[in-house]
Amino acid sequence: MTRFVLFAAPIAIAASILINGGGEDAEQPAGSPAAADPADSSVGPDPYAAANDEERRQLDERVAAMPAGLAAPAKRELAWKLLATSESSTLDWRGQYAAIDDNGDGTGYTAGIVGFCSGTHDMLTFVEAFTKDHPDSPLTPYVPALRKVDGTGSHKGLDPGFTAAWKKSAADPVFRAAQDHVRDKQYFEPAVRLAKLDGLGTLGQFIYFDAMVLQGPGTEPDAFYGIRKSALAEADTVDEGGDEKVYLDAFLDAARAVMKSKKNQHDTSRIDTTQREFLYDGNLSLEPPLAWKMYGETFRVAS
Q: pLDDT tier at 21 (50, 70, 90 boundaries)?
């Protein structure tokens, strides 16, 4: 997974923590999504990222006037469940704060509600930020080891105690709130806002969110804004006068191609038997009851 966390602390953590690999002067890993700018017109700009303060205020007003879509409480809950089935094969998304395992895909340990990975930099930035303000965290002793294994699938220095430390940390409501904050501020809110500005309904908003979580909010061809750029080359957004189904089909084609290009993402159930099925059923508003298959298992949400 190509992820990079821009972490702003929740209530109990200093608001000054804004992670991009340790600050503006910190060296970033090669290929980090944070190294590129979503305002870059070469990738089909995010109008919000490209805007000045006044323009952002106007865009905020425009989005606020739109239907809530995926941001409505019931739809947010549905989004968390859909994401949990693709990340952890369960509807119980609340049980994933403490989840941690190595699924053998070469990205090391995967943990938490958005699948932070010890090998893809996002777990490191998250844990560094959290432990900076919570030095007594059970995870603090593992920060040096996380730095050393970053970019690899190695567990060196993490075993045998890291998984237990993560699970113990997840019993702390502040740690759970920190995970929520990353999910919301780094992935959910930017994805939903951009989808609305592109004229997309609730399903399209979830498709953007899921792609941003899986591939990271970067501008490389295999990250979110690169996928969007590929889709824009094939179809117009609704805001540009295009057909919503045609555009989303193009976006899913581009997202699927990226997944198939990665050795650890060859199972494309989240697109083939979930998002594409909702699209072909014409359920652009993600209205329940819903049934979908993920990795061969059927999941249902009645309401």
A: very low
pLDDT tens for 45-58 read 788 888 999 999 99
Burial of 85 (0-12, 13-18, 19+ CB in 10 A): buried
Active-site residue (options: 37, 40, 105, 133): 105
Strand partners, 294: 297
The 8-class DSSP code of residue 222 comes to T
Q: Please report, as a single letter, which amino acid is at residue 51.
A: A
**Quick one: tokens of 103?**
């699924």
C-alpha 210 chain-centroid distance: 6
pLDDT above 60: residue 27: no
What is the C-alpha end-to-end distance of the chain, expressed in Å?
31
Apex CA 227: angle with CA 224 and CA 46, to 5°?
A: 60
- Which backbone phi and psi does 116 adopt, to 5 degrees? -55, 135
Q: Report the alpha-carbon distance of residue 191 to residue 133 in Å, rounded.
A: 28
Q: What is the pLDDT of residues 196-208, one digit of tens each?
A: 999 999 999 999 9
Cα–Cα distances in Å, from 54 out to 38, 57, 63, 74? 18, 5, 14, 31
For 272, which DSSP code?
A: I
Q: What is the mean pLDDT of the segment spanning 216-233?
A: 94
The listed range with the strongest mean pLDDT (42-51, 170-179, 263-272) is: 170-179
Tell whether pTM > 0.85.
yes
Examine the residue annotation and report whether 105 is marked as an active-site residue of this protein. Answer: yes
Catalytic residue among 46, 87, 102, 150: 87
Q: Are 33 and 152 in contact (CB under 8 A)?
A: no
How far apart are alpha carbons 21 and 270 in whole angstroms?
29
Tokens encoding 143: 């920060």
What's the pLDDT band for 36 if we cut at 50, 70, 90? Answer: low
